[in-house]
Specification:
There is one protein chain. By secondary structure, the chain is of the alpha+beta class. The protein has a domain of 113 residues: Nuclear Transport Factor 2, Chain: A. Helices cover 51% and strands 17% of the residues. Strands 1-2-3-4-5 form a 5-stranded antiparallel beta sheet. A hairpin with a 6-residue loop joins strand 4 and strand 5. Helix 1 packs across helix 4. The chain is rod-shaped and about 185 Å long.
């Protein structure tokens, strides 16, 4: 339980630090004379008005390639969605942020959120030269915490999604060999079927040997049969020879059924 409480405290501190780090405050720098500062502030307001007119007239394409105004227009358009309607200017000042650099802050009073337009220019013998123009929206502490939480969840969700995808891919490596083996088996079966279809038909079987003919009893020589009958008659009459007996015909006796 203590571990979970500690982890919750750490996450809360991270969100708080993230929110506090994003909170706009007065820019550190060396103050300048009031008249000079008022001149830089007036120039800063004029730059902001020029940016507003470019966006309102839809002339962004004319300055999109400019190294300073191009990013400045994009930053202004992105912040304008949260600012809402601009009601005026506030919190305006200018400081020497470096020996040869001036930073001007023009505060925007918006209906939805306030914002700060930070203008950085380098100073020299030939006057000030613009380096960057950035619009920063002033979100409340609760909104910063919500944004930090959403960013954290988005990052963690993306990480877990990638890990899940990697796990699925690793499991697919186990299935791929089985699928490949199945395809190879189908190819082998098709090749075997094609080879069987292309092989010549088997030779017809040799005819079976004819069974030996069985002699027909009815085809016995009539002459031999007659001689046997004649010898039987002679024996019945007490003769030793069948000479003188002539068998004219042989008929089957017809007997009535008893």
């Amino acid at each position: 339980m203590k571990k979970w409480i500690t982890l919750l405290c750490v996450i809360t501190c991270v969100f708080a630090l993230t929110g506090c780090g994003s909170t706009t405050g007065r820019i550190a720098g060396e103050p300048m004379p009031q008249e000079e500062e008022m001149g830089y502030v007036a120039s800063g307001e004029a730059l902001v008005e020029n940016i507003r007119q470019v966006v309102d007239l839809g002339m962004q394409d004319q300055v999109v390639d400019d190294p300073v105004y191009g990013p400045a227009i994009q930053s202004w358009e992105s912040a304008l969605k949260d600012i809402g309607e601009i009601e005026g200017y506030q919190n305006e000042y200018a400081v020497y942020s470096d020996k040869k650099e001036v930073t001007v802050n023009i505060g925007i009073d918006g209906t939805e959120h306030d914002a700060d337009v930070v203008i950085v220019a380098s100073t020299g013998t030939q006057g000030a030269e613009l380096k960057s123009i950035t619009t920063n929206v002033a979100y409340s502490f609760g909104e910063l915490i919500e944004q930090a939480a959403l960013n954290t969840l988005l990052g963690m969700g993306t990480t877990f999604a990638v890990l899940i995808l990697l796990a699925v891919l690793i499991n697919c490596f186990k299935i791929i060999p089985k699928i490949q083996a199945s395809f190879e088996k189908k190819k082998r079966d098709k090749a075997a079927q094609a080879a069987a279809a292309a092989a010549p038909a088997a030779a017809p079987a040799a005819p079976a040997a004819a069974a030996p003919a069985v002699p027909d009893v009815s085809a016995v020589d009539d002459g031999a049969l007659i001689a046997v009958i004649a010898a039987a008659i002679a024996a019945s009459e007490g003769r030793t020879s069948a000479d003188g007996f002539v068998v004219r015909s042989i008929r089957k006796a017809r007997r009535k059924a008893q």
